[in-house]
Amino acid sequence: MDKDGQFEVSNFKNALGKYYFRKVGPSSLEFKIATIISKIPHPNIVNFFVINSISLDMEILDTEFQISNEAKALKLITDMKNARNHLLSNGIVYIDWKLDNIGWSEEEQVFKLFDFDVSGIYDIKTSRWINEPEKYFAYNLAVKNNITDPIGIDSFNFNKMVDELLMEF
């Protein structure tokens, strides 16, 4: 941030010579989730390079992508379904499904999910929260629709994102 309170974007390179984005000040739950994700990488989830309680360094994705046809919409839905299944099978509930939290990897030609600050951790066997996330808009929207279990909340918001995307075509 500069002296006038405006954010400045810097291009950082890590030891591998790759540019990365640094998110400063993750919550303790987001730090925990990023740590789990880094141990179980997936092609449709952002790669983390450095994870600590002060910041998260991750790959830079194109967030200005355009969904210009049904084929690209279907690719996005399929990639996000794969990311969602991977997260749920590892006890992570994403919840905050929206296009703003998805980026395009030009190098890998896939969509990737990022921004886990509204995510939570649940017990796969009991489907109960272990670490419940903050109850922001997406969470509360599901609850207003009488959905309170972790997978149900995630499903509700995932389906809402898909419906909104498909309405454009």
Short structural description:
The protein has 169 residues and is α+β, with helices and mostly antiparallel strands. Helices cover 34% and strands 21% of the residues. β3 (48-51) and β4 (55-59) form a beta hairpin.
**β-sheet strand percentage:** 15-25%
The named CATH superfamily: Transferase(Phosphotransferase) domain 1
- Structural class call reads alpha+beta
CATH topology: Transferase(Phosphotransferase), domain 1
* Number of helical stretches of at least 4 residues: 4
Return the average pLDDT rounded to an integer. Answer: 91
Overall CATH class: Mainly Alpha
Assign an overall shape.
globular
Which residues sit in consecutive blocks of at least 5 with pLDDT less than 50?
Answer: none
- Return the string of H and E elements: EEHEEHEEEEEHH
Describe this structure in words.
The protein is an alpha+beta fold and 169 residues long. It has four helices and nine strands; from the N terminus they run ββαββαβββββαα. The protein has helices at residues 28-39, 70-89, 137-144, 150-166, and strands at residues 12-13, 19-24, 48-51, 55-59, 92-93, 102-105, 110-113, 120-123, 128-131. The strands form three sheets. A four-stranded antiparallel β-sheet has the order 1-2-4-3, with helices on one face. Strands 5-8-9 form a three-stranded antiparallel β-sheet. β1 and β2 (19-24) form a beta hairpin. It is globular and about 50 Å long.
